[in-house]
Known about the structure:
The structure is a homodimer.
Chain A: E1 3-7, H1 16-29, E2 32-37, H2 39-48, E3 56-60, H3 83-92, E4 98-101, H4 105-116, E5 126-127, E6 130-132, E7 137-141, H5 151-167, E8 175-179, H6 190-200, E9 206-211, E10 223-225, H7 228-253, H8 257-276, E11 284-288, E12 294-297, H9 303-318, H10 321-339
Parallel strand pairs in A: 1-2, 1-4, 2-3, 4-12, 7-10, 8-9, 8-10
Antiparallel strand pairs in A: 5-11, 6-7, 11-12
Helix pairs in contact in A: 1-9, 3-4, 5-6, 5-10
Amino acid sequence: MMKIIVDAFGGDNAPLAPVQGSVEAHKEYGVDIILTGDEAVIKKTAAENNLSLDGIEIVHAPDVFTNDDQPSTIRSKAKANTSMAVGFQLLKDGKGDAFISAGNSGALGAGAMFLIKRIKGIQRVAFAPVMPNMNSYFMLIDSGVNTDVRPKALQQFAMMGSIYMNKVMGFENPRVGLANVGAEEHKGDTLRQESYALLKETPSINFVGNVEGRDIPLDGADVVVCDGFTGNMILKTYEGVAIALMKKIKGVFTKNIKTKLAAAAVMKEFKEMKNSMDSDEIGGAPVLGCTKPVFKAHGSAKAKTIKNAIRVTMDYVNNNVIASITEALREIDDTQNEGE
Amino acid sequence: MMKIIVDAFGGDNAPLAPVQGSVEAHKEYGVDIILTGDEAVIKKTAAENNLSLDGIEIVHAPDVFTNDDQPSTIRSKAKANTSMAVGFQLLKDGKGDAFISAGNSGALGAGAMFLIKRIKGIQRVAFAPVMPNMNSYFMLIDSGVNTDVRPKALQQFAMMGSIYMNKVMGFENPRVGLANVGAEEHKGDTLRQESYALLKETPSINFVGNVEGRDIPLDGADVVVCDGFTGNMILKTYEGVAIALMKKIKGVFTKNIKTKLAAAAVMKEFKEMKNSMDSDEIGGAPVLGCTKPVFKAHGSAKAKTIKNAIRVTMDYVNNNVIASITEALREIDDTQNEGE
Lengths: 340, 340
């Protein structure tokens, strides 16, 4: 029986959102859950919201790792009793199959890297959010962990992202694009030029060349590969522009009685559109490259987001993504050794 | 009398858009114009569209610098008869006060750098588009020319952007933000950390700290400073998300008769909203750091865009932006020498 560990004190809406999302996932998917966090508070939250904790185990962790804490301290003794560190420890000890948290992103990356460890041969672990675009979804890898990387790391991001988008998200032969400032092979800085050359030669990925910022939302690639600095700028600009535009549109619709009536008439269609672009449906971002499944839910995760994160993570476990990454890594190394 | 040189063969809608925009600008602002490009074609285009070329001088240039040409070749003998190279030569020779083109961006940057030359002490010239945000406008500097820069260049971008936004766009004490992956001073790579320290100590700019991607469209700063690679990714992601969202919304409005009626009811307000975000109103991007005003109009510039670019460029000339940059540069150097 699969068992997912969920940090009950990660994110803006903790502990209610993680507790409620876990309860709903258990009911809907029949998955076992371990919640980490202050036991009394979790029980009180469940009781107050009429949530049954049947089939849900609680592992007590009195402290919380906040967004103000230095990410690297997730390994420290002082933080060992935080709900996040306890979750990592349970995963490491084999008490569960995967770990989900909506807490401090940097700490989740550091924990995946240093407490769970990288897959042998993987240079960097990566945050890899699956985001909405014009037609469906795409993965942005890396989007925040690694500010200084080498082409080899981008090659591994491409490979890991392809496997995840194929096995978990169901994309046939996902198109890999290198985020860059122009379409031609010679564009960009040294990192981009060297990465382009390497990606072109990588077996088992479907490299479609450079993808410009403008083409990312317009479905230019299924896996967009970049360093973490660039990825974070893209990710947040993406979110910011969508928020700003939706605010502007809301302003239009609430301007007068005529526009308010118009708004009412398109309400249902706008809701459908918003849902199709709703990151809560995807639940967040896998942390790829470590030896066990770690998943970052949005900081603003609601119960639904956590429930969806649990469903996605079950697919992450069931489809042996990590075994496939390990195997693909061997293939890449074999090919490159042959070439040497 | 001010005289603006306009490349009649730059951009997707050339030569009609540059010719018509120039004719309208001459009529509306009384400014003299030199058009560069194939004289016969310009005259034919004007005649066919009932545009009077009174007050508009044509300097014949039989060739066109295309988007497929290597930017650096703008300096070459082979390209000396392109409408862009001829425009640069006229500017260099003092035959006009400023040069505007909607053509190859890279070539315009290279021409500004090598044919017009940098202001003494300026490390890099920068493309600095003025873009719409939630409330008004902001400048993104650099957004494409320089992929590898040092903190000193970012400091100069901050200073040049502040002067332009103040003198040409009328911003009182413009807020300067460093594009970065988090708000805190220690965030980002080495370039960001060192640039933060330098910007904090820079006289006569209003540095407000780091600005994340998410805050850029939400009016987090009036001048957003970054290297050209990052700026290009931000710029194009920004445009792409807006385009994708507007397409989605159009899809909603054209779904059925009910939504079409709703669309009709909010048409006027949507148009106003679109205008408030319309980059055609701003006309494009100054190239900052060279000794004479060079201005890049959007590749997709329409006649209105060119007309607006001419108006903005007149302000660029009239307000002595380049003299102010030269002076501010001296101030920075004085302060830093004192500190040494």
